[in-house]
């Protein structure tokens, strides 16, 4: 077993910190008309991570774009980190957050990671995207952050990350990841 | 954040402990699109607090499909948004179909999330989202269900379904 309390453990602050999830949430909507690779960081959706540490990643993002530009986003960690992730969301060129799912794992052994894209959403409809993955930080501490842009050049509306989007990491013991890389 | 040397108070532990509600009974709707509370799936809310929301909803149904909603109760004044993350209505059988990730708009209480068309095999929706009482009042939030279209074949949310809230201290 990992990440459990053991009888007799003193309840010291570092122990509690390591057992608690770190969660960040976006307090206000943010927008961009930029097309990737002109990525925009989502302020507030950056969670601090340590060097020489491993994390589980999950989250939920409210994402919207009102034309055929589609939406692109990615996770970026500290330099020389390893991150692998996917999002549970419809593919591009579908409508209003309903459609076939892109389950492709975004495999990245260095930053920047690859964009993942979700459906075209018209009429103000947005998509709620589940995020999952893992992170290994090596020599650098920093933050794991969400960056976003429109996926294709197009006229019209902004890509928008919506209030209430959140990102969560759990620090885990090395044993859980032994042999993964 | 907890700092070295700091006393560990109940409030510190409550800030890092998920709140979980678990349904012990089936809740069914027949020939009805009127939302009803899913028994047991209700959690208290503190004022001026952000929460992340997650749930796992096991259900069966026929042509009526399933309508899900999050609703404030007990005087809570909240903002929220979530997505159903379940199979689309009227697509396929036995819970296999296109995914519905449509975001149910914030401040739109009782909004509808639809998922599935499963008479004999149970399907699952895995909603996620957020709930906020910032600028509002304490109270509670509850999950509700109904048929999405009226059908004589019952739609049932099964016992064992659950919902979970976690505070987001950094957002408040």
Explain this structure to me?
The complex is a heterodimer of chains A (181) and B (172). Chain A is mainly β and 181 residues long. In chain A, 4% of the residues lie in helices and 45% in strands. In chain A, strands 1, 2, 4, 6, 8, 10, 12 and 13 form an eight-stranded antiparallel beta sheet that branches. Chain A has a four-stranded antiparallel beta sheet with strand order 3-11-5-9, with no helix packed on it. Chain A is elongated, with a radius of gyration of 17 Å. Chain A starts with 12 loop residues before the first helix and ends in a 9-residue tail after the last strand. With 172 residues, chain B is mainly beta. In chain B, strands 1, 2, 4, 6, 11, 12, 14 and 15 form an eight-stranded antiparallel beta sheet that branches. In chain B, strands 3-13-5-10 form a four-stranded antiparallel beta sheet, with no helix packed on it. Chain B has one helix and 15 strands; from the N terminus they run H-E-E-E-E-E-E-E-E-E-E-E-E-E-E-E. Classes of the chains: A mainly beta (181), B mainly beta (172). Chain A binds chain B through residues 11-14, 16-17, 19-27, 44, 60, 62-64, 88-90, 96-101, 118, 125-130, 162-166, 168, and chain B through 1-6, 8, 12-13, 16, 50, 52, 79-83, 85, 88, 98-106, 126, 128-130, 132, 166, 168-171. Strand 10 (126-137) of chain A pairs antiparallel with strand 9 of chain B, so a sheet runs across the interface.
